[in-house]
Amino acid sequence: MKTDTAHLAWNDRWATPHGRADWLTPEPDVAAFAATLATRGALKVLDLGCGVGRHALAYARLGLDVTAVDMAEQGLSELRRASREEDLAIATQVAAMTELPFETGSFDHVLSFNVIYHGDPLIVGAAVAEIARVLKPGGSYQGTMLSKRNVKYGNGEEVAPNTFVDAAIDPDDSDKIHPHFYCNAAELVELFAEFEPLSLIDQEHAKPGSWHWHMVAERR
């Protein structure tokens, strides 16, 4: 299995205020579900692919026990700085989504927003398996995947089934030089076979045609 290197582009982005600007506010659906976690008995939370920590910080403000991982050290550095300023305790660690350094059943909830579709089907499948492994039975998962309705689907070179590297590199979007995996609803449900879907919505993000699946699911 080839390791994806998308984190290198993000490491550069997190190094500047301009690059971080669009990634400081928690997503509304993440914030809304976070507010329900305590009532679900979810206390230990993993933010997988935390970036600069917008969601990890939001969880910690709710009093949850938060661990945040990313492959981009610069993002983790920004999260540590922000958590110190707010006097919030957040454990941070460099870790690959395909090899999480945690014991089985360590967490009540895992978030992975705009992360695990960076790779071919083997990488994506390994990431989903790791999420299932570190979640307790009955634990919750919230995350996104690229939809086949996305205007980028089919662009560039197909390097693996439903996986494309965009040949037309946008200088303002260096992330696109890395593999991106796309799926439809049936494929997504099959990929998350160890989960019971609670919510699955094909949602357009800020850019026109930027369709992503937003999923909430429970570990069986």
Which characteristics define this entry?
220 residues, alpha/beta, Rossmann fold, ten-stranded mixed β-sheet
CATH topology: Rossmann fold
Cα distance spanning the termini: 27 Å
Structural class: alpha/beta
Radius of gyration, Cα only, in angstroms? 16 Å
Biggest β-sheet strands, sense, barrel: 10 strands, mixed
Domain unit count:
1
Find the count of extended strands (DSSP E, 2+ residues).
Answer: 10
- Coarse morphology: globular
Q: From N to C, what is the helix and strand string?
A: HHHEHEHEEHEEEEHEE
Give a description of the structure.
One of its GO terms (molecular function) is methyltransferase activity. This is Type 11 methyltransferase. One of its GO terms (biological process) is methylation. Keywords: Methyltransferase, S-adenosyl-L-methionine, Transferase. Residues 45-139 form the Methyltransferase domain. The chain is 28% helix and 30% strand. With 220 residues, the chain is of the alpha/beta class. The chain has one domain: Vaccinia Virus protein VP39 (Rossmann fold), CATH 3.40.50. Strands 1, 2, 3, 4, 5, 6, 7, 8, 9 and 10 form a 10-stranded mixed sheet that branches. Helix 6 links the parallel strand 4 and strand 5. Helix 1 crosses helix 5 (73-85). It is globular and about 45 Å long. The two termini are 27 Å apart.
